[in-house]
Predict the 3D structure of the following.
Amino acid sequence: MSSNPLWTATYRVGEADLEYMTLDATDLPDDLRGYQLARSGTLDNAEMAENGFKDSTVDRFRNAGRIGGFMREFVPTSDVSPTSGTNFVGATVVHLFENPEQVSGWMSDIFVKDFEDNVGESVGSGQQIISVDRIDAQGFYDEATGLRVLQGGPAGLLASTVIDFRVGRLLGVAFVGTIGEHERTDLTTELALSLEKRMVQVALGV
């Protein structure tokens, strides 16, 4: 795999390049068109640990090979009423690792394992993870995995669909959050494939 030109190109990618890989509002799928930027910025290991599950530490993420990341998060405009079926957030994140093997390890040993290990646990803000189901992430250049997470709280049920995929030593993440118990695999896949295309273009200097 080391002779793969795309993988080789990701070794020329630095943390400053990650911002240009995450999607802009104009890149979003039709179902998220018109959404506005809510948050964007770098994601260091300290912030990841602070907002992660209870076992999350800076050392754990650093030892997993994670160097840094960048995220962009979009939400509906204020005139959209938050009813069941509303996609309340769409986001893309790109993480940089020391090598491709560590990206693969993160996907299985941290992303999937942490969610599955925390079913039934409280995750803050009165929220509890009710169920975690693996979804079939298809159409990607390399390894990909996805989860559908159902959580409940005072305001009712929220469903999150998350797809992680590898591009060399880069990890791409696409995320869609929906009010109620709804399936968003197709939309999240569309978002993730657009992210993958952008990541490849930036890595290859297109």
Q: What stands out?
A: The beta strands are 36-42, 66-75, 87-97, 128-135, 144-153, 156-167, 170-179. The CA atoms of residues 117 and 130 lie 12 Å apart. The longest helix spans residues 185-203. The two ends are 22 Å apart (CA to CA).
